[in-house]
Write a structure and sequence with these properties.
By secondary structure, this protein is α+β, with helices and mostly antiparallel strands. It has nine helices and 15 strands. It is elongated.
Length: 331
Amino acid sequence: MKRILLLSILILSFQNSHSQDTELSKNDEKSIKKMIREFERNSINKDSIDWKNFEKKVWESAVFSKDSAVITALTLNGEKHSSYYDQTTETYLSAKGKKADSYKKIEAFENEENLGYINILPFIDSRKSLDETLKKGAKYITENLENIKKQDAKKLKGWVIDLRKNNGGNMWPMLVSLTPFLENETLGYFLIEDKWHEWSKQENQIFNGASNQTKKFIDAPLDYKLTNKNLKIAVLINGNTASSGEAAAIALMSNPNVKFFGNSTAGYTTSNSTITLKNNDILILTSGVMADYTKKEYWNGVEPNFKISGTDDLKNEILEWFSKNTAVNNG
């Protein structure tokens, strides 16, 4: 009898401690409620989801942990671009759990002396400070522009813009960095709930709708223009090019001198909203699709004009394309 009583006490003790370990805080409960509502109102797949079942499954998972609830919500949402940033652990969650980098190693492009080369890398916002993001953005833009100016001083027959290592982040510092290569007027769009949200270049400044993105990061409009705006531009893309990297590729389509070389991009050509929750975590929710300046939608990424796998073949194909003609050419 004593053994049974002792065993019962131990089991009860374990259950209580286990319950305390997985019990949600009030802020986490409120955050999960808001997360569910945001998915229901703004998900790109909102018209195809059974929201009663969605909410039921998320709360069932919340019994185990907040992370379980989040992963269940992201999985039931049914697309790969949405994610969740946990401020406490400083990690991202996705439909498969913690977001992992699984990118192919990229060999450096061995550039020719008479070609300009710029490598547009990812730009990741600071999740803790807007000021830090703006400072980082100003530095990122300045370094890219100085690199362009330095090379533009030479006599060039064309440019190579490398997006093969650009797996995303904030697209606006990327587009501001690429201002000299971008055409005025419309660069692209987000299509969200049948409404077109334009990205544009006006008076050497980049805009998201009416919001001046250039002035967010640097004080004045860029007064720099390429020495020869008619040179061909080879843009390198592959399966690592994702999200905002794909947005940069789409924006460059507005320039008639651009052709794409490499492989298909990752297919994260959708737009995300960032929503801060009660517990200070951030829901990054996909709500729209990207489109180019002609309003062509890109649901599955960007395809190259010249599909090439090997690094040597890539360089040879680009050099052959440049050698055909250095002026504006659509072929």
